[in-house]
Sequence to fold (259 residues):
Amino acid sequence: MSSRTRALLVSSVLVVALLITAALAPLPFSLAYPGSTADVLGEHKGKPVITISGTPTRKTTGQLRMVAIVATGPDVPVRLGDIVKGWFATDEAVMPRDSVYPVGKNSREVSEHNAAQMKESQDTAVQAALGHLHKSPKDVRIKLNMADIGGPSAGLLFSLGIIDKLDGDGAGHDLTGGRKISGTGTITADGKVGPVGGVPLKVQAAGRDGASVFLVPKQQCSDARATAPDGVRLVPVTTLTGALDALKSLRAGKNVPAC
Fold:
């Protein structure tokens, strides 16, 4: 065997070894999938999601469904084969692990961080809803039961649910018009709607669970369009007031902004 042939053989063996190592080595990514949805006007695990005391509430129809994604945990290894498969799948997303889990190195720490984010999001959603209705938190007490689904992305839906239970569209009508409405978006105390992660997966979860309308932060319209199931109408929103106006127009059969 010539020296050139030996060199090529050794090089080939090294390349194969490197490829095998790369295929088996864990990489800093997570795989995400469409998660659960939950009606904020209804119950979660046998308890009302929104409980209001100190003021009369109204009976609602239809649904306002918050959505979530699920992802491989921060301590679950993701390898090259998983990533290649995820890139070509429409119901999976490959995401940098740091973007999914910016805080926490294991499942327990992540769960604690997500629960704290959800609690902060719920408190802000209450402020936004009561501020819109010009009601004082001293007179209206609101409890939200959704602590086991973490993150801030349900803020908009919580605010809409509170407003629907207290005031509807202001004229005695349901915000939903009897539909299954879904959506996502953070909320600030003054009612601004912000972007969230996993929109392409969340719109799939909404369609899977029967939603006909999906409220999406306006700057993420293109993400939602890429995977929106047939029959799901995408409505862009930037503020709580804008979302309420869109729902009122939908119920009345008027023109509504679209992605």
Summary: Residues 75 and 106 are 6 Å apart (CA to CA). Residues 7-25 have pLDDT under 50 and may be disordered. Residues 35-68+114-252 form a domain with the Ribosomal Protein S5; domain 2 fold (CATH 3.30.230.10).
